[in-house]
Amino acid sequence: xxxxxxxxxxxxxxxxxxxxxxxxxxxxxxxxxxxxxxxxxxxxxxxxxxxxxxxxxxxxxxxxxxxxxxxxxxxxxxxxxxxxxxxxxxxxxxxxxxxxxxxxxxxxxxxxxxxxx
Length: 117
Ligand SMILES: [Zn+2]
Description:
Largest sheet: none
Shape: elongated
Oligomer: single chain
Bound molecules: zinc ion
Mean pLDDT: 87
């Protein structure tokens, strides 16, 4: 996590920071996944001959899962930005009470208070 010092940034700034981190992660993971997929077509090349094809399959599945997670994070951050625009950011979507500032600092995209999480 590369969050700014707590208390110094507005929710918008924290979300923007998280957003750029998530976007960067998606880029890296998408590139890695493309490499793995491309590499798996080249396994007939002798110097890349890999007796552990299952390792590649595992890494591919792992990377795809991380990529899906990063995309979900980005969706959550988009949703948080919409809440800011709508003026309902920081309100628990379940019980309607305010989410504590500490929780929003740790999880800028949180949509539920700690009791409802
Ligand atoms: Zn709640």
